[in-house]
Amino acid sequence: ERFGLHTMIVSNELNPDAFTAVAEMMFRLAVRVRDETGVSVEFVNLGGGLGIPYRPEQRGIDIGLLSQSIRKAHESILGPAGMSGVKVFTECGRFVTGPFGCLLARVLHVKRTWKNFVGLDASMADLMRPGMYGAYHHISAVGKEEEPKDFLCDVTGSLCENNDKFAVDRLLPRVEPGDLVVIHDTGAHGHAMGFNYNGKLRSAEILLRPDGTQELIRRAETLDDYFATALFR
After folding, report:
1. Contact present, 103 and 167 (Cβ < 8 Å)
2. Residues assigned a catalytic role
3. pLDDT digit string (tens) for 163-186?
4. How many domains does the chain have?
5. Angstrom distance (rounded) from CA 217 to CA 191
6. What digits encode the pLDDT tens for the residues 43-92?
7. Which of the 8 DSSP states describes residue 154?
8. Of 54, 47, 44, which is closest to residue 14 (Cα–Cα)?
9. Closest CA to 183 of 117, 126, 115
10. Domain end (from 54, 69, 97)
11. In this structure, are 91 and 116 located in the same domain?
12. For tag attachment on the chain, is the N or C end more exposed, with fewer CB atoms within 10 Å?
């Protein structure tokens, strides 16, 4: 039988030393499993967790330097044990897709009461992470990128849930109804985590090519899609 080791320890981690430590731990475990059981370990899967810089002030991981560090650990731990053929796998979905998607939404309302609220036509049905566990996604106002960010507000969605928020106490330029906003770095957890609560229909997806051209790669859902699985007549 084929045998391998798999782990998932970190999530959205930006410190490369954490991944090297995980690799060293798993390589030593592979040697121990072989020595104590006689089982031949074919691969070590280091799982996912490679982070991306959601905040403008954060720096991303240098994947080249990280791979060199993991290779050194592989050679120094598995090599002397006669296990240099052990393969290394990763599951870096967020790292591969996260920075290359964004959610485009339009401002529907600006409400000034005990605090300021900016209501969008999007909702947590389009991007669940901020409402689900307070994750940060950078937000910019199209055409107002250079204007002062002096408007403290909550950026909300259109669901009847009080956690349907894209940001809390965020400083933005002074936006008005009709303005477009971009919610950044949604490539990994946007459409993939979408849902139809409140009858919300999933939005279209458009591919922006390097030459500036666009291509529709997923059409928007319709009511026919919404009711397609219903069995009643």
Report:
1. no
2. 160
3. 999 999 999 999 999 999 999 999
4. 2
5. 12
6. 999 999 999 999 999 999 999 999 999 999 999 999 999 999 999 999 99
7. E
8. 54
9. 126
10. 97
11. no
12. C
